[in-house]
Amino acid sequence: MARILILLLALWPALAFAALDDPLAPGAKVAFLGITFLDTSTEGAYNGVRADETARIPLLENAVRQRFLQEGFVLLPTDALAAELAATANPADCYGCERRMAAKLGADYVLVGEVQKVSNLILAMNLVLRDVDSGTMLRGMSVDIRSNTDDSWLRGIRYILKNHFFKP
């Protein structure tokens, strides 16, 4: 019995991440609640919001939407959640509120993301897809990018989508 327990404990990490490679349901309804920008850099503390970084969030969101549509998913309009989303600082970090909002839309999956600016050179990008009913993370990846340009941001999100969400 002890050997079985040791074997299960040894295999636990592999079993826990196995769901991250399960196929996604074709044509599933996705509530994409957007990507949140978090500026924790010293530059942001001193200089405030930068227009170029603010403009990059819709750029990333459009790239994500286009890829999900290209892969055959149905992206649900989130207009009915406008007030709730406006009152939520970060749907990617709200103790399950993203699932509750997605459930109101009748979504199968909920998709949220974050870009954290550590410095003007170092940024971290995260994208997470969860099953609305169970809360199980179906896909999730974080990448660090270097450089703070449209190209580097797009390269980061495309890497996540290509190499984890929709890997061949």
What does this structure look like?
The chain has 168 residues and is of the alpha/beta class. The chain contains six helices and five strands; from the N terminus they run αβααβααβββα. It has helices at residues 2-18, 42-47, 51-70, 82-86, 97-105, 150-165; strands at residues 29-39, 74-75, 109-117, 122-131, 137-146. α3 packs parallel to α6. The chain is globular, with a radius of gyration of 18 Å.
Features:
single chain, 168 residues, alpha/beta, Rossmann fold, 5-stranded mixed beta sheet, 6 helices, globular, disordered N terminus
Name the CATH superfamily classification. ABC-type transport auxiliary lipoprotein component
CATH hierarchy: architecture: 3-Layer(aba) Sandwich
- Domain unit count: 1
Report the count of strand segments. 5
Strand line-up of the largest beta sheet: 2-1-3-4-5
pLDDT average, as an integer?
89
Q: What fraction of the residues are assigned to beta strands by DSSP? A: 25-35%
End-to-end separation: 40 Å
Radius of gyration: 18 Å
Number of helices: 6
CATH topology annotation: Rossmann fold
Main beta sheet strand tally, sense and closure: 5 strands, mixed
Measured as a percent range, the helix fraction is: 40-55%
